[in-house]
Each structure stands twice: as structure tokens, then as C-alpha cells.
Amino acid sequence: QGNLNQLAKAAGKLYFGSATDNSELSDSAYVNVLKNKDEFGQITPGNTQKWQYTEPSNGVFDYTQGDVITNFAEANGQILRCHNLVWHNQLPSWVSSGSWTAAQLTDVINAHIASEVGHYKGQCYAWDVVNEALNDDGTFRADVFYNVLGTSYLPIAFKAAAAADPDARLYYNDYNIEYSGAKATAALNIVKTIQAAGAPIHGVGFQGHFIVGGTPSQTDLTNVLNSFVALDVDVAYTELDVRFSSLPANAAGYAQQANDYGAVVGACLAVSRCVGITVWDFDDKYSWIPSTFSGQGEACLYWQNLTAKPAYYKVQSLL
Ligand code: XIL
After folding, report:
1. Of all atoms in ligand 1, which is nearest to the CA of residue 83?
2. Which partner for 13 in 8, 75, 76, 280 could form a disulfide, CB atoms 3.0-4.6 Å apart?
3. Residue 225 pLDDT
4. Does residue 131 line the site of ligand 1, with CB under 6 A?
5. Annotation says 132 is catalytic
6. Which residues of 83-110 are buried (b: 16+ CB within 10 A; e: fewer)?
7. Where does the record place the GH10 domain (predicted)?
8. Distances (CA, A) of 11 to 32, 100, 230
9. What is the mean pLDDT of the chain?
10. Which of 23, 47, 210 to mutate to test the pocket of ligand 1 (most atoms within 8 A of CB)?
11. Whether residue 47 has its Cβ less than 6 Å from ligand 1
């Protein structure tokens, strides 16, 4: 019984939240669920704060679409996790294909972050400052940032974000770091690198894009969270969904999915510095999974018709 955000807060968390996207806000049945801050006390813009939207060409900034989501959250009394500043994907080609010197790309990063974080100053509880810097084997992704600047782009980005909004909680965010292994170890090293450079980092976001039956155990999830907390950072699940790798799903599958969501909720509850959980949308109708992972889906807490799955009731019962 009870609404998810209210239950999460009663359990000592800051929020239970959801991502959303601009096109979804014209669906009134969906919006009626999303806008209830007792259910979703936190919103993440799923796309429109990304670089391709906010600085489509050099020095040309556009926050009109991002503002639609941030205004929605504020109107409904919901906390904002802002997403994201430096990422290899959804990055305009003027950045990714530019032939930059280190000094030039540093200026580009600084100008982008000063403008965007400055625009949203005071509105973002947290910023995903750097997203997905790592390959799955724990090496650095050879994107334009790493190729030109090496790991120095990490503290550059975090310092710029702190300068533009000293009150925002600054996060490193990635996937496949939720369980122990080379990538989680590499993410721990990212935190240490940023700290050693004298830049602020306040949290690590664990995206949590899992597969039914393949979700890490609650014990492993908890141990990994604790290994980050030992570096004195907050932790959060920032993009949780648990997809079926083949469809259609059956009753046993929905029960497994419920247990998988439950492992993640249990891990966050077990770690006091796990501040909250964000689902990467709550309704299968708007899940990013089918368009990215062909043939996969049904990853969300609600079916397309906005009725709650067993996973929803599992999350509710654990919170
Ligand atoms: C996804 C969006 O949900 C999609 O609409 C878009 O086409 C691609 O990006 N990791 C992230 C998110 O950090 O920004 C991604 O969002 C999903 C994976």
C-alpha cells in the first residue's frame, strides 16, 4: 500500500523518481500518473538536456525543450536530476568531429557547462556531469574527450559544473558498474582521479539497465554500492529498467522481473548513502528499450495501458 515516493521517503531515501521526455507530456493519462509527487518525487529529462539539444552548434545555446521538463517538475514539486553534460552519445558532430587542441576542447567543455549549468542554476538537485566514460572492459572510451584530453577532461568537467552551480550534487553516471568487475573497478578509479585532482564529486549514478533473470544479486549490488560509499560519495540508481531479452513474457517471467526490481530496491535500502531510485520511465509505452534493443522490451513497472505489473507491487512492498 502507498505511493512509491512517499514510501521511499519514509524509508529514509530522498526520492523515488522517473525519467520522462517532451513528447510524452501530451499524453494526459500518462501525465496524470507522472505528475503525482507522492508517486514520483523526482524527474530526469530523458533527452532534452543533452548536448545535441542544448548547444547544437558552437556557442548557440537552446534550453527551450529542456525547460519544458524542468518547468513540469517544478510545477509539480518534484526534485530534478539533470542529465547530462559530457557524453560521447547524442553529441553534435561539431564537437565529436572537430579537430581540437587540448586548450580548444577545454574551452568548449567549459563554455558548454558554464552555460547549461548556469541556465539551470538552483534547479538541479544533481547533475550527471560525465556519462559513460568507460568501455565494458574498464578501459576508457576513445571518444573525442578522452582522445584529446586523456583523463584530464574528468576534473575539468566537474570543476566547471561546481563553478556554475555550487549547490548541485555532481555525479559520474554509467552502466554495467552496478556489479563487481573490471568496469566497476575502473569507475572507482574515476572517482579517485577526480578527487586527486582536487575537483568535487558528490555521487555515482548506477544506470541499472538490467535483463530479466540476469540482474545481479542483491548482495553483489549492495557490496558494489558500499565500495563507492567508502570513497565518500553518494550513490543512486539513475536509469532503472529490467527488460525481457525475448518476448512475449509469461507469468514466470513477470515474477522473475519483480524479483529483479526487488534486488535493486533492496540494495538501495541497505545502503544509507543510496539517496534514491529513478526508473527510465515507468510505462512500457515510453520505454527506450524496443528501439535500442531489437526484440526486447516490457522493461518498465507499468504495462502500456498504465496498469501496474508484479514488479510494481514488489517495489511497493519492499519500500
Ligand atoms: C536514451 C533515451 O531514453 C532515448 O530516448 C534516446 O534515443 C537515447 O538515449 N543511458 C543514458 C540515457 O544515460 O541518456 C539514455 O537515454 C539511455 C542509456
Report:
1. 14
2. 8
3. 98
4. yes
5. yes
6. bbbbbbeebbeebeeeebeeeebbebbb
7. 1-318
8. 25, 48, 22
9. 98
10. 47
11. yes
49-75: b (≥16 Cβ within 10 Å) or e:
bbbebbbeeeeeeebebbbebbebbee
Q: What does the pLDDT look like over 80-136, one tens digit per residue?
A: 999 999 999 999 999 999 999 999 999 999 999 999 999 999 999 999 999 999 999
- Please identify which of the residues 39, 55, 178, 239 carries the catalytic annotation: 239
Tens of pLDDT, residue by residue over 204-251, are 999 999 999 999 999 999 999 999 999 999 999 999 999 999 999 999
Ordered DSSP codes for 212-226: TTTSPPHHHHHHHHH
> What one-letter code names the amino acid at 270?
A
Show the cell assigned to 119.
Answer: 541556465
- Measured in residues, the chain has a length of 319
How many angstroms is it from 46 CA to the middle of ligand 1?
6
pLDDT in tens, 279-305: 999 999 999 999 999 999 999 999 999
**Is there a contact between 130 and 197 (Cβ–Cβ < 8 Å)?**
no
Q: Is 44's C-beta closer than 6 angstroms to any atom of ligand 1? A: no
The residues pairing with 169 across neighbouring beta strands, listed in sequence order, are 126
Q: Is the ipTM of this complex over 0.90?
A: yes
* Ligand 1 centroid – CA 216 distance (Å): 21
- For the question of whether the overall pTM of this predicted structure is more than 0.90, the answer is yes
